[in-house]
Amino acid sequence: MQFRKISIYSLVAAFILSSCSGKKQEEKTVYENTKFTKNNENTVHLTEKQLQSVGVTTTTIQNRDMEKLIRLNGKAEISPSHISSVSSIMGGHIKSIHVINGSHFRKGQVLAVVEDPQFIQLQQDYLVTKAQLEAARLNYNRQKDLNTSKASSDKTMQTAQADYSTLNATLKGLEEKLRIIGINAKGLTSGNIRSKINVYAPFNGFVSKVLVNNGQYINPADTLFELINPAGLLLELKVFENDVNDIKTGQEMIVYNNQNPDLKSNAKVVSVVPSIETGGAATAVAKLSSANSEFVKGMYVNAEVNISSRYTQGLPKEAVVSFENKNYVFEDLGKSSYKMIQVTTGISDDQFTEILKSETLKDKKIVQKGAYSLLMMLKNKAE
Length: 383
Description:
The protein is of the alpha+beta class. The protein has four domains: 33-67 and 312-382, Beta Barrel (conserved putative lor/sdh protein from methanococcus maripaludis s2 fold); 68-80 and 230-310, Efflux pump adaptor protein, beta barrel domain (Elongation Factor Tu (Ef-tu), domain 3, Beta Barrel); 88-116 and 202-223, CATH 2.40.50.100; 117-194. 28% of the residues lie in helices and 37% in strands. The chain has five helices and 21 strands. The chain has helices at 2-30, 48-54, 117-148, 154-180, 371-382, and strands spanning 43-45, 58-59, 62-78, 83-86, 92-97, 104-105, 110-115, 196-200, 205-210, 217-218, 225-228, 233-240, 252-257, 265-277, 281-288, 300-316, 321-323, 326-334, 337-348, 352-356, 366-367. β14 and β15 form a beta hairpin. α3 packs antiparallel against α4. The longest helix is centred in the middle third of the chain and has 32 residues, at 117-148. The protein is elongated and about 130 Å long.
């Protein structure tokens, strides 16, 4: 009985050993001749069985007309030159405010009304000076006539002339001050003097911030509103390092936002910042071809740039494989041996990849089908 038990255990052990041996033999067959040496660390050799399994086909460097579609993303921003701070030319109390945050306005629209006694004084000074100027003009003309007949001295005429010139300059200055605060001096009379002035919108746009309230006293240096001119909307887009050389000033692009991706708008690249920031991307700045209310400051946007067709050299896309952010192809050395070669790629579409400095691959047979399998075999043997 004891002998039987030992025999059964022996048979089981023998079976397990046999299985393990068979498995190792199979793995040896799959990766046969794939051990690293200093001379073949970038070369993989396939057995007949592996060759049939992988189904390797080869190709050569080819000439092709290619187009590249680059997809970018970023945010909508406003050019600093199109963000305006509005203040009152002269201080006073806020009598009324006609807009709120986000209000759209037209150029010349009244944003607020400011009241102060100094506005009355300015208009009064203008009218008084205007009357004095008329009297000074008459006196100057009279003295000039008298001086011609030597009935008055030169000094008297010169004094009259100086008074007239001084009052004329004063009137012109007061007229300009009235124009700046929105009062037409030409139509001003003692019957239409007013204590209030309007603060007008300088362009079409919308209100970003209202910084005052009714009854508040404001100084000329105080900002009443921050206004945004939508014509200054810019799109700041990230361009990854491998696409930087393809993005140029003046290029047309299609842009859309995440909220309404089916609504496409046209834009043009106006500048490219020549600097790769942390994260491996540069910044391209684009401007919409026409105003579009769908895009507002701070909104995330997407863009597509179609690079013009160019005649270039490359390989079918499946012939180029990537590993650790580098691109490779495999050269067929013959006798089921394949050598991995690092390459630099350019533009790419669904079927073809451009190879830069492709003269190094001239007249070489390059693996097309099976390139990824060769890469995995090579990396597995390294491990």
